[in-house]
Amino acid sequence: DAVDLPVSLSGTCTMMELYVRNEGFSKAYHKYDLKVIAQNGDNTYVLNQESPDNRKWEGGTAYKEKIKLDFTGVPTGKYDIKIGLFEKEKPILLALKSALKDQNGFYKITETVVGSI
Fold it and tell me: ∠ CA 37-44-112 to the nearest 5 degrees?
């Protein structure tokens, strides 16, 4: 639904707040991996090591997930921030606009400028 991403600095970590809403009738029974990436042209950086547990997202309920993003190896510049929910390598479709989805199953949720310390 929405995202809050504070200032992103190369070489540091930050906390992103992701607001999700399960529009289904029940919770998920399988755990999927939520991946967050920063992408700039052909450069892609995986930002999170841990994934929230999607099985707790009850149907019809909104949640706020805090996700630690690691910008340690991300150079300064402008990036698309994308999320994807995956079962191993298989993307799980999300109820987001199809125009936001790329060929790898990631959805663009915001843009950010990674600055320097």
Answer: 55
DSSP at 96: S
The helices-and-strands tally (H runs, E runs) of the chain is 0, 9
E-only strand ranges, 10-48: 13-21, 33-40, 43-46
Q: What is the pTM of this model?
A: 0.93
Q: Is residue 22 very low, low, confident or very high in pLDDT (cuts 50, 70, 90)?
A: confident
d(CA 107, CA 1): 12
Question: Two tokens at 99?
Answer: 């125009």
- The alpha carbon dihedral of 68, 114, 106, 27 has a sign of positive
Summarised one tens digit per residue, pLDDT across range 64-90 is: 999 999 999 999 999 999 999 999 999
Alpha carbon 37 to its chain centroid, in Å, reads: 7
Query: Phi and psi dihedrals of 112, rounded to 5?
Result: -150, 155
The single residue listed with the structure tokens 């994308």 is 82
